[in-house]
Amino acid sequence: MKLGIIISTNNSETNWNALRLANFAIKQGDEIKIFLIGQGVEYESGNSEKFNIQEQVKEFLLSDKAQILACGTCLKLREQKTTNSCPINTLKDLYLLIKESDKILTF
User: Fold this and answer.
1) How many domains in the chain?
2) pLDDT tens readout for residues 4-51
3) Which residue among 23, 29, 105, 106 is the one 20 to 30 A from 43 at the CA level?
4) Residues 57-86: tens digit of each pLDDT
5) Which DSSP state fits 87?
6) DSSP alpha helices (H): ranges in the chain?
7) Domain region containing 19
8) What is the pTM of this model?
């Protein structure tokens, strides 16, 4: 299955759980694309000992069936630079993620 996950919040627990689900789905053989939009581009700032987002991201990006995309406009509004775990993309990429996915989840 192709699963699209859209993260639009910077809530640590929510993002940690979204990434945990993404990692579980990869282990089931699914292809996962995560699109960060709005406050979602700040998802890594919520990393803590309790909600180890960095650990989940690191595990996620090890898979060739995993991809993270981030809204370029949202990054620019927050004066954030593109990174491997928060790469700049466009709304066209979000549209394609939605169009090509079998299921879409939003967090």
Assistant:
1) 1
2) 999 999 999 999 999 999 999 999 999 999 999 999 999 999 999 999
3) 29
4) 999 999 999 999 999 999 999 999 999 899
5) -
6) 12-27, 53-61, 72-77, 91-100
7) 2-106
8) 0.95
